[in-house]
Amino acid sequence: MTIQVGDKIPSVELKVMGEKGPETVTTDELFAGKKVVMMAVPGAFTPGCSMTHLPGYVVKVDEIKAKGVDEVICTAVNDAFVMAAWGKDQNAEHITMLADGNGELATALGLTMDASGFGLGSVRSQRYAMIVNDGVVELLNVDSGEIDKSSAETILAAL
């Protein structure tokens, strides 16, 4: 079942790249007491994600944070090494690049897709963006083709 507005983000362990390598973080740590915008992509370095989705957030991150957002997170079903390299490639130093290597977050949220037809594997995240306040979903926009509902511009307008 897909997470809904008003639901609490499930407790999941994920990875971020630290100074000495991948470090474990929990969704509880990431969302507790903060207002967070989290956007998800099917895969790092894929065309729509690299040309449109993440770049929009890189350009708008300061405007988003100026609306009272404490953190902007980008997640994908990729490992911490790939997410760190993609963040560096995209100049996303002000965005937390969150690795959902086994698709546990995407699965817990009910936002998986089968991307095996594209050669990306059977468990990938759908493309979405959400606004989360103290661990509770306030807005969830899931794209069904175009990158419009989850774009930085759409989320900025909703804040």
UniProtKB/TrEMBL annotation:
UniProt xrefs under Gene3D superfamilies: Glutaredoxin
Gene Ontology cellular-component terms listed: cytoplasm
Family: Belongs to the peroxiredoxin family. Prx5 subfamily.
Keyword entries, A-Z: Antioxidant, Oxidoreductase, Peroxidase, Redox-active center
Enzyme class label: oxidoreductase
Entry EC number(s): 1.11.1.27
GO MF annotation: an example: thioredoxin peroxidase activity
CDD domains: PRX5_like
InterPro entries named in the record: PRX5-like, Redoxin, Thioredoxin-like_sf, Thioredoxin_domain
GO process annotations (BP): cell redox homeostasis; cellular response to oxidative stress; hydrogen peroxide catabolic process
Catalytic activity, reaction form: a hydroperoxide + 2 glutathione = an alcohol + glutathione disulfide + H2O
Pfam families: Redoxin
Function description: Thiol-specific peroxidase that catalyzes the reduction of hydrogen peroxide and organic hydroperoxides to water and alcohols, respectively. Plays a role in cell protection against oxidative stress by detoxifying peroxides.
All copies of domain Thioredoxin, residue ranges: 3-159
Enzyme active site: 49 (cysteine sulfenic acid (-soh) intermediate)
Designated name of the protein: Glutathione-dependent peroxiredoxin
